[in-house]
Write a structure and sequence with these properties.
Structural class: alpha/beta
Largest sheet: 4 strands, parallel
Order of helices and strands: EHHEHHEHHEHEHHEHHEHEH
Strand content: 5-15%
Shape: globular
Distance between the termini: 25 Å
Number of helices: 13
Number of domains: 2
Length: 233
């Protein structure tokens, strides 16, 4: 299977280890992963902010860049949801490439049929299901199944897990007070679990959560779950 990594803007600029972890996981499982150098932003920020016309060239460019691959893996629920949900509505001819685009847990569990990726992570972890992964992609139990298979990892439930963390892209900027209140509730719930690490499928949400935790001095690290799955057993 020809697999391509779409790393996304946030990961490329701020969290390169997440992209490297995805490649490491897939190579450990015996797959080759390409990284098309022509890839750019998926256009989510533009489309979500009302700049539909400005998003269209990025949508078409994504489809052209990833046209030859059987699967495109995305370590981001929000960007994967943009491609899968919005692309076919914005540019109908991109529906085929959109259907071959998967968030990491979808590729591992549904396409490759794997839950145990051979990882070890000796820490207490809680999981926050981000909004796009939860509501648009409907990832469900897939990320949790992957985390449960990690050796020496203690997975603890997060109270109010399905409540938004308050990030929401530009929502956090335009509605700062509401966003901060939602973040405070989420951080309190995370701290209440006694977890050392909070994991999620989106580094954008984890940036928001991690900032909230650090400002209160909480001893909890925010970490993309791909970096947990990349740990060696």
């Amino acid at each position: 299977m020809r697999i391509a990594l779409f790393v996304t803007c946030v990961n490329d600029l701020m969290y390169p280890d997440t992209g490297k972890s995805v490649v490491h996981i897939l190579e450990r499982l015996g797959h080759e992963v390409d990284f098309p150098l022509a890839q750019t932003c998926c256009g989510q920020m533009h489309a979500n902010s009302g700049y539909r016309d400005e998003a269209l060239p990025l949508v078409r460019h994504f489809a052209e860049t990833f046209a030859g691959y059987e699967a495109i893996v995305v370590p981001s629920g929000s960007c994967a949801a943009m491609v899968r949900d919005a692309y076919p509505r914005l540019v109908p001819e991109t529906a085929d490439v959109a259907a071959r685009t998967y968030e990491l847990s979808e590729l591992l569990v549904d396409v490759l049929g794997v839950t145990d990726v051979g990882a070890r992570f000796p820490h207490r972890v809680t999981y926050h299901p981000t909004c796009h992964g939860l509501r648009l992609l409907r990832l469900g139990d897939r990320p949790l199944a992957l985390l449960r298979a990690v050796r020496d990892l203690e997975l603890v439930d997060l109270p109010g897990a399905e409540e938004c963390c308050g990030f929401g892209g530009t929502f956090a900027l335009k509605n700062a007070d509401v966003s901060a209140a939602m973040l405070a509730d989420k951080c309190a719930a995370i701290q209440g679990t006694g977890a050392e690490v909070v994991a999620a499928v989106d580094n954008s949400c984890l940036t928001h959560i991690g900032g909230g935790l650090s400002r209160t001095g909480a001893p909890v690290r925010a970490l993309h779950y791909a970096e947990i799955l990349a740990g060696e057993a």
